[in-house]
Design a protein that fits this description.
With about 425 residues, the protein is an alpha/beta fold. The protein is built from eight helices and 38 strands.
Length: about 425
Amino acid sequence: MSSLLLYKPDICSAMMNLILFDDPAIRVQLLPFTFTRPVANIRVGILTIAEKWAVRLQIKPSYLTESYLQTKFPQRAGDNNLYINGAVCPTRELVSAIEALPMGGTLTRADGLLIAHRTEKILTHLTDLNPITPQVFDKSVTTIERTWEIMLANGAQIRTDFALITNGRMSQPITDPFTYAYGEENIFLEEGATVRASILNAESGPIYIGRNAQINEGSVIIGPFALGTESVVQWGSRMRQNTSIGPFCKIGGEVGGSVLFGYSAKQHDGYLGNSVIGEWCNLGANTNTSNLKNDYTNVKLHSYTTGQLEDSGQMFAGLFMGDFTRAGISTMFNTGTVVGVNVNVFGSGFQPKHIPSFSWGGVADGFTPYRINKALHVAREVYSRRDRVFDETEEAILTAISQQESVPPGELTIH
């Protein structure tokens, strides 16, 4: 949970358990990101969905998710449990409707999607729910149900989160004399944030700079834009609007309309557009993504539901990369590429539109399975570089994923 979230010891948090649940159909549609996290731990805007609910309700959440994730993301329940769909982003009106739910009460979207349920029971599956007369929430609800909706909703969610977490607070000043700010009233710097010899343009949307984050010399930042705790924008970078860089990232080159969840790096020149990158990823120097087809038709992406390419309905869609994946220098990703968890991809030519988890190789010579022992060794090294411990829980999660989706053992896949 982000360090900017302060939980108040109020009555609500003392008595009620907030459990964010994974809708099974939505979870599959959000793979590869939900291989390694509950739906609610997806970042969209400045905060993850879980952090949004934590701030709104002032309750630290727990999760009802896949069994192999439950050790890392446990459920904490008692006799007053508020189960909320982890794909739903909160608003003031929605929070009011949920807080008004009586015991046994259920709130749904107009089309029947389950939003929230309050119960004294401890649920282990959504099928345990048996709502009698659900209430319908008839106002607009932002839900993240498809991978591309993360980047589509990002600009609006930056605005919403910015208003939420800066309300009544004062930004640290921009003290560098060589930095120029347009719309400075829409720029917020947390404690320890630094900006040097850069241009910040917040006239079209807010710019949020997290605690101890850095924007280095010669960079241009266009809002809406968010930079997480201790993240770094390298010198000479161009950050286009509707971009969120999560905590502990290193970012450079040109980035637009994209989300990096956290702990990932794209430090060098190269374009990343309309893309979503998970945690613990690295894009080598001169890695580039295509986000627009030459014929201007809708982009098709790999669907984990059907196993086929499905029409996203979007003209702009780039790279969707799961956690722990690395791309070698000058890697080229085609429009609408989906890459799984713990992939090592490299080599010349545009990479295939879908690369399964635990794959090693590139389009030129094909892919072989990424040996689990080697993959776990690299993950431990990556964690240690950030002073984190890759423990048995993390190892068990990656091992479980390797058994769900990967290149079949001994098989070389030529594209």
